[in-house]
Amino acid sequence: MLILEEEKKKKHTVTFCIIENTLFGMGNPLLDISAVVDKDFLDKFGLKPNDQILAEDKHKALFEEIVKRNKVEYHAGGSTQNSVKIAQWMIQKPHKVATFFGCIGTDHFGEILKKKAEEAHVDAHYYEQNVEPTGTCAACITGDNRSLVANLAAANCYKKEKHLDLDSNWELVKKAKVYYIAGFFLTVSPESILKVAKHASDNNKIFCMNLSAPFISQFFKEPLMMIMPYVDILFGNETEAATFAKELGFETDDIAEIAKKTQNLPKENTKRQRVVVFTQGKDDTVATVGFLSALVQEHALEECIRAGHYAANVIIRRVGCTFPEKPDFH
Predict the structure, then answer these.
(1) What is the pLDDT of residue 94?
(2) Where is the Carbohydrate kinase PfkB domain (predicted)?
């Protein structure tokens, strides 16, 4: 993991009381549906044993069929929702430290998702609409393999003017001190991201973003670079960093050099030096989730990284984005 910051801050003791809604996340909520299946099931829907794909028309019946299986597990999912969910788990109490916005459908899966977010003690405020069904991600498990099929559906339908702009919701945004949004949401509502990012910048709060996947830099470069001047902490893995560098014409594949050039991109809030966190190695991207829990508690950067490594180490050993009742992190 390569971290770049301008200068090491002096270590000092901070007495800090965490309150509700300190961490704000906004993104694509998905209901994770996990079940053990057989090879015939995979073959029926043209799935590989270990893969990640977006659902096509031929997969629609898959979601109906998988819920009829024995021992189906449901979890609140989606990149950003998972991140704030695990930050909440790391913090434990108070509950509802993390707020989450996203779009779901007015359907059975939507009700399950609301229940699962509540069980995770995340303060989820969903924009609910009846045009598209709640987004889902089916995890088809065969032995040690997982074939993931995601259907974004309602997650693509978030509307700034119908949800984020409402006074009661914007008050929750204003309560936060740390903001985290994955690059995936640039495909849905860049105008919503921009409004939140500007608020963070104008009020000297911390706005974090994740490059999420190489295709974000490739095909959504314009909205990404519209947000970049407001980004205080940028996360990404080495593949995403390399693609980002290529799209911006950095003319280097050295991760340290890419981080330095990224740090020096124009920035609105000059009171905060941009921090760049590029993870390297297997199962790296989940390190973000623990990092956020320490960041919310105003811990030093080194402690944020340690928390990130701990959370990642727990999660990669389990099926889906799940965790024990309590963390063993000190």
Answers:
(1) 93
(2) 41-286
